Amino acid sequence: MYWNKTRECMSREELRFHQFQKLKDTIDRVYHNVESYRHKMQQRGIIPEDIKSLEDLKVLPFTTKQDLRDNYPTGLFASPLSEIIRIHASSGTTGKPTVVGYTRRDISNWAELVARCLVMGGGRRDSVVQVSYGYGLFTGGLGFHYGAEKLGAVVIPTSGGNTRRQVMLMKDLKTEILACTPSYALYIAETLEEMGIDRNELHLKTGIFGAEPWTENMRKEIQEKLGIKALDIYGLSEVIGPGVACECGEQKGLHIFEDYFIPEIIDPVTEEPLPPGEKGELVITTIDKEGLPVIRYRTRDITSINYEPCACGRTHARIEKLLGRTDDMLIIRGVNVFPSQIESVLMAAGETEPHYLLIVDRVDNLDSLEVWVEVSEKLFADEVRKLEDVRKKIASDIYTTLGINVNVRLVEPHTIERSEGKAKRVIDKRKM
Amino acid sequence: MFVKQISVFLENKPGRLSEVTRVLSEKNIDISAISIADTTQFGILRMIVNKPEEAVAAIKEAGFPVSTTDVLAVEVADRPGGLNHALQVLRQADVSVEYLYSFIKRNEDKALILFRVEDPQKAVKALEAAGIKLYESNEIASL
Ligand SMILES: [Zn+2]
Question: What's the whole-model pTM score?
Fold first, then answer.
């Protein structure tokens, strides 16, 4: 099942033709409407007419989050405010938030993309969709909401929080598709256990989870605990929000909607393009956006791209499940560490709940990493020796995977703060 | 033949032990033996109580990982060499002892020791053959 078969299954040749037309329009748009883009192109002596093929995209300069900050709040908008009907903003960990704007057409296109994702997850006109992403400035809630409405589904806009009530509604209204962060999905699963509700009392079929990196092991756990198929959705507000890419039922990579976005993978350090299959930073150019088009936007997300045809029939390329953000990357004693790698080790150990916290510190000028792991009922043993063995095994598995020595600390359940939005996985005391 | 022991995971930080004892006293549960095995980071609290199922539920509710283990409640003479006798019997039967601790209450001139052994069946056989008395759960409750 497809939401828009013509677009989702168009031949690669047609797609490239479509992309080139749209790219030219976008470059014209930003050159004439956005001072910052015009200035950057002029500095390099480029005019829109120089873009004669899709490959010429590579001569254009990158856009970064810093560009959005420098042009705070609306300096990169390519539409007058009279055309803008919605603002979203991402929380700025340093200083000002990033503000993004949408025209009526952008909102409609975004809903189209999310509707495609919902159909990938088995969504239909009569599906009940519960949106447990936060509503408000964050794009998750409203992005899903409009997409589910476009599909014609029954939308339950629970937003995040008040989990027991969410579970009650989920059960009573027979929710079939749940949209939230993967960590919140696990929290919901825990709440079910606490409330003594069996997953078979629910009607959940699919979860569409995103807004934070999560591992295959976490997917396995969510699928088992909730009895659903868990699909990964990708998006970022600077590009549009959730719905940039999503997994189909094959669960072998996320189709990136190439009729709206041109993806590239680059080496984050040398900025050179990388061939399909190689891991690098995802760079996106929006080609059908009015309010805030972005040219070669550095997402800081690490993935690889695959142009092989997919069994589902969609022709759009697939990106690999996100491996973490370059921002989340911790450099510990010179080794690049993604929290998701530690999570994989913990879950592969099979003995722990995926609740962990990484505490990075610097002692005597040497980086140290402490991994707090909550002791689950399953992991707990009556003998000190067995618990010590668990600790040692986790530490040695991390050493095998990452090549760094860590101190593993076993903590009581619920010691580590549960978030209802993004999970806090790292405390870096070196920055305090 | 065996007695149900409750084990609880505790982090090594102030107030955790008293949190468990508070939960139990609220449910009017009586502790007849208690011990803690600890490391620098965490400890394992082990207890014999009069209402094990209720205790497990209450401790779980309070958020602690908890498990139950079968242990042996062995009667020894409360004088020098009393414990040694039981240990010699086990050694001769080639049963190794994981840990042991004693009851708070005594039965007249006898002390009661809890044993966690590697091979409980074998241990029972050896101790009984040596004429050493093992207590059942109901006998402990009536002490
Ligand atoms: Zn597919």
Answer: 0.67
